[in-house]
């Protein structure tokens, strides 16, 4: 892999939530900089948290050496969030042509979770003025971020919520009016954000639910992971039961309970923190354990145990995400300050050929296990980058139509952004 192009942003607070815009700005399709917009959220242990939209001050930052004294990214606008931001996502690409309201397409939606699911409207109508001071944002830039609605429990609420904290959410790409959230109160809630009403709320796990994801291409099936150590699949067409696709082995060498077991005693488990589908082959999912340093790759056609395990990190993993190419790379990041990119195309293709004799639909994939699949170990990532501090989160860009940079490289292709402390670094893949 070639030398990495790098862009950077410094925030006034520790960053956790992070997402790269999914498309160019509606009014700036011809401006390459509009593909370089990030949504970020703070993680402070108080109620003064904020979210912000950051973007390139000017394309010259990418292509002219004279602009090296200017910051790469600047704050375009920000807003008060209160509770720490557990997740932030821009609207899916499919939502750009979706008629959310009577407004023109000059606005875009973002969503965040914390004490509630919040929908935000971002508008970048005007051309931002070039500032005379490094890092300063012109207040008359024309960028604005406003709260559209807040959803908690099973209904619309005022800005403040008394509901159980939400840990994450997934925005349905096929039906962008649907968002599913996960909560520490063991539930998942499917929302219709057009009507601000809950479609359904279900008890998904025995303990806290940490992450949730729609099956790509489906408006009915989603999966979740949680503190009980299980990965479960749900189908909105038949909610009487769920399918357990994977359960973590019970931890070894656990001391016996100090008191006699009671009906409320819980067996020890190894919680699963995140779940992410391979967008080009939704049979494959990646997950990892709390405090774990390995990534498990699961095949929905072979539930029960991983088909691949990735070993490259030296301490706990914090984030995982797939790119959007035809053969997407998997990015992982953790407390060892490492961002690792994994090319699993050859491994997943080999596994797919084993399953080729019995194709299954999305719903039928949730059935019989195949214990004959052996787990393979992968220890060599395709690329590694060392950040200045622990990496708490990551986000992929969509494929960007680029321009040549002053280094002789092109901005075209995919970028991956990482959050480490108060810094965001965007690296060209």
Structural description of this entry:
The protein is mainly beta and 429 residues long. It is 3% helix and 41% strand. The strands form seven sheets. It has a five-stranded antiparallel beta sheet, with no helix packed on it. It has a five-stranded mixed beta sheet with strand order 19-20-21-22-26, with no helix packed on it. The longest helix is centred in the C-terminal third of the chain and has 10 residues, at 345-354. It is globular, with a radius of gyration of 22 Å. The N and C termini lie close together (8 Å). Residues 247-270 are annotated as: Disordered.
Quick one: how many beta strands?
30
What spatial order of strands do you see in the largest sheet?
6-7-8-9-10
**Beta-strand content bin:** 35-45%
User: CA-to-CA gap between the ends?
Assistant: 8 Å
Structural class: mainly beta
Biggest sheet record: 5 strands, antiparallel
Mean pLDDT: 84
What's the total helix number?
Answer: 2
**Which regions have little confidence, pLDDT < 50, spanning 5+ residues?**
128-140, 260-265, 357-363
Radius of gyration: 22 Å
Task: Based on Cα principal axes, name the global outline.
Answer: globular
Helix content: under 10%
Protein name: WD40 repeat-like protein
Pfam families: WD40
InterPro entries: DCAF7-like (IPR045159), WD40/YVTN_repeat-like_dom_sf (IPR015943), WD40_repeat_CS (IPR019775), WD40_repeat_dom_sf (IPR036322), WD40_rpt (IPR001680)
Keywords: Repeat, WD repeat
């Amino acid at each position: 892999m070639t030398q990495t192009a790098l862009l950077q942003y410094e925030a006034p607070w520790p960053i956790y939530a992070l997402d790269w815009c999914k498309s160019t700005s509606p009014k700036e399709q011809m401006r390459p900089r509009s593909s370089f917009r990030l949504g970020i959220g703070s993680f402070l242990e108080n109620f003064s948290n904020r979210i912000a939209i950051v973007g390139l001050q000017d394309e010259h930052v990418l292509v002219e050496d004279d602009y090296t004294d200017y910051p790469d990214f600047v704050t375009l606008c920000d807003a008060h969030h209160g509770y720490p931001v557990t997740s932030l996502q821009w609207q899916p690409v499919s939502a750009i042509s979706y008629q959310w309201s009577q407004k023109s397409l000059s606005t875009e939606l973002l969503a965040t979770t914390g004490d509630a699911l919040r929908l935000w409207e971002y508008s970048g109508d005007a051309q931002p003025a070039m500032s005379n001071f490094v890092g300063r944002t012109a207040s008359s830039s024309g960028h604005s971020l406003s709260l559209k609605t807040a959803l908690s429990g099973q209904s619309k609420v005022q800005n403040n919520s008394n509901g159980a904290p939400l840990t994450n959410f997934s925005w349905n790409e096929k039906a962008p009016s649907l968002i599913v959230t996960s909560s520490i109160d063991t539930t998942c809630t499917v929302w219709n954000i057009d009507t601000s009403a809950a479609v359904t709320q279900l008890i998904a796990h025995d303990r806290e639910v940490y992450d949730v994801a729609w099956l790509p291409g489906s408006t009915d099936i989603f999966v979740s992971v949680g503190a009980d150590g299980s990965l479960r699949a749900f189908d909105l067409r038949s909610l009487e039961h769920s399918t357990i696709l994977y359960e973590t082995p019970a931890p070894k060498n656990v001391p016996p309970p100090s008191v006699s077991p009671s009906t409320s005693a819980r067996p020890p488990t190894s919680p699963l923190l995140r779940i992410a589908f391979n967008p080009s082959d939704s049979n494959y999912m990646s997950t990892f354990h709390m405090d774990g340093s390995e990534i498990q790759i699961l095949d929905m056609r072979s539930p029960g145990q991983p088909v691949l395990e990735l070993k490259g990190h030296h301490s706990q993993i914090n984030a995982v995400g797939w790119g959007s190419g035809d053969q997407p790379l998997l990015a992982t990041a953790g407390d060892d300050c490492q961002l690792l990119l994994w090319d699993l195309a050859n491994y997943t293709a080999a596994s797919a050929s084993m399953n080729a004799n019995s194709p299954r639909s999305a719903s039928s994939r949730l059935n019989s296990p195949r214990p004959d699949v052996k787990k393979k170990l992968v220890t060599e990532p395709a690329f590694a980058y060392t950040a200045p501090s622990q990496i708490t989160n990551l986000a992929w860009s969509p494929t960007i139509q680029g321009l040549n940079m002053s280094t002789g490289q092109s901005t075209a292709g995919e970028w991956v952004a990482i959050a480490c402390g108060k810094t965001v670094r965007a690296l060209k893949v």
